[in-house]
Design brief:
Elements (H helix, E strand, L loop, with lengths): L1 H16 L14 E18 L9 E7 L3 E11 L4 E5 L2 E15 L2 E23 L6 E14 L22 E14 L4 E11 L10 H4 L1 E16 L1
Antiparallel strand pairs: 1-3, 1-10, 2-5, 3-4, 3-5, 4-6, 5-6, 6-7, 7-8, 8-9, 9-10
Length: 233
């Protein structure tokens, strides 16, 4: 729905841009461009419980809680054709997300939350297909692949020994697919853009360390929604 809204907004803005004089008319002819992205992100998990016979009887439910964070990246883009480009925008992302465990206790049910900070160094590579330019406006779609390294990951840390305290250990390395769309506005001295991108992890990042909480989880994959402001020279 978000991606569709961006495309609809783009068509309306395009009609208003048709008769305006063009800023930076040679931009689509430049072989290489560079810029910066800054924005907000909504990180979360796609968590799948283990089969009933495989997980502890005391854990009766598992759910993911989305968080929020910030990100910044440096963009470099190579033009493959007039409307198709290859984009590489490595960057840094800071966010927080959590997994909630519903536990059946002797005195009643209760919940325990495992909050996880993510400090990701990201290496996304994507193909971007632009629309034709309408005055000082254009829209685009992109799809690609991403490798990320969680420098705050706890993959090698020992399990906590506090009774009743969940600690999910997660792998540092992850691989993801991404898809998104955006709007470009050509200003006199630079190009400003708005972008939304969805990222879904391909790898089960849970470390199966034999703890009760890890045994309750069948798979744990990352998912994330990014909202970015882009500035290209």
């Amino acid at each position: 729905m978000v991606l569709g809204g961006v495309c609809v907004s783009g068509s309306l803005l395009a009609q208003q841009q048709m008769r305006r004089p063009q800023n930076r008319p040679a931009f689509y002819s430049e072989k290489f461009s560079a810029g910066v992205h800054v924005g907000l992100n909504l990180p979360g998990f796609d968590v799948r419980p283990a089969a009933r016979g495989m997980r502890p009887d005391s854990i009766i439910g598992i759910s993911a809680i989305d968080g929020s964070g910030l990100h910044i990246s440096i963009q470099s883009e190579l033009r493959l054709s007039r409307l198709l480009t290859l984009r590489f925008d490595p960057g840094y992302l800071l966010g927080e997300r959590a997994v909630l465990f519903d536990v059946a206790g002797k005195r009643g049910n209760y919940s325990l939350m495992q909050a996880t900070e993510s400090d990701l160094i990201r290496f996304p590579l994507a193909l971007r297909l632009r629309s034709k330019r309408y005055g000082n406006f254009a829209s685009y779609m992109l799809t690609g692949f991403e490798y990320s390294l969680d420098v705050a990951g706890n993959e090698r840390k020992l399990q906590q020994s506090y009774p009743g305290q969940p600690m999910l250990r997660m792998k540092k390395n992850n691989y993801s697919l991404q898809a998104g769309s955006g709007l470009d506005f050509f200003l006199p001295y630079f190009k400003f853009g708005l972008e939304v991108r969805f990222i879904y992890g391909l790898r089960n990042i849970l470390v199966p360390d034999g703890s009760p909480f890890a045994d309750a989880v069948g798979s744990l994959r990352s998912r994330m929604l990014l909202f970015s402001f882009t500035f290209e020279g």
